[in-house]
Fold this protein.
Amino acid sequence: MDDSVVARVSALLLSGEITGRAQVEALERSLSVYLGGRRVRAVSSASAAIELALRICGIGPGDEVIIPALSPVAPHLVVKVGATPVFVDVEPGTRHLDLTAAEARVGPRTRALIPAHVAGLPMPLDDLYSLARRHSLRVIENVAGALGASWRGQRIGSRGDICVFDFSANETLTTIEGGALSFAEEKDARELDRPRFRDDALSTAGARATASASNQFIMPELHAAIGVPQLAELSLAMRKRHALVQRYYASFRSDFPCVLPHPGYSGDEAGHGWHSFAPLLPVHRLSISRQQFRDELERRGIGTAVPCAATHLDRAFRDLGYRRGDLAHAERIADTAVTLPLSPAMTDSDIDRVCAACAEVLRSSQT
């Protein structure tokens, strides 16, 4: 965040107008313009956005929703609205939802798909929506990490059914906590507006209670003020991310026995968003575990993260009958991926320092 963010937030605090909607509407307008005029609504979190999208699609008890096994949040929200998540494996290279496997799981109760553009790499949208049309399914695209990415010249989030954005603290654009939805259909945007803005018009106690509950989904003004200036600088931030990733690739290809993230598609088919960089460790060739590898980097002053879990193995979904080995690609990625530092604020020297530390730990740990 630069001085423009500090200035906008300071002006809002000094104005005392922190309960209005001017900043939220400014963020919605800016994101709509960025997405080519798409209908946009800002909300309090990505979780809220996914839940609202499910409800707008009319998904509830008795319905099934197909989800990649590396989705950490969406399955719980599917359960929250009364539906059943159907977990599907991912493609080992792209880490995207395996569309062939997904189509094999479509049944009479399937109502929607919630695919994700993993780490900024766009899914092949033509294939995705062809599948959805064949089976009359709604699509809720999880765009977290892919803001700034593109598919065949169109920005991710600017086409398709309903797209859900995440603006939490570790995202490409952050409002500290927040999210947004973009809609292809005006009727879907109107449905979201209905409970948000009709409090004063409601007359029954039951309706008022419903409207009051809906307030938890509204993005605060202060959060929106943090996001607006960042959108104007997004293109510059994306260029910096791309340059830093290329430096990672140059080092890893020559020095490390890791499986690297998918570099993106050839030609102009898609533009990678590079939200994160998470190689897979060759744990079978190391004398240390992934956690020990992370601990060694931490001792050298380098923070890392585990990007995903195999959600189908979560105890919350034990009753669905999934077992280890059912979705092998997702499980391998969940067990071995490590997210390395990546931020527009980093320099080439920062990347070199991370790579040198990785090389030192890996070389000393090879069996």
Remarks:
- The first strand starts at residue 39 and ends at 43.
- The two ends are 43 Å apart (CA to CA).
- The CA atoms of residues 4 and 321 lie 51 Å apart.
- Residues 196-213 have pLDDT under 50 and may be disordered.
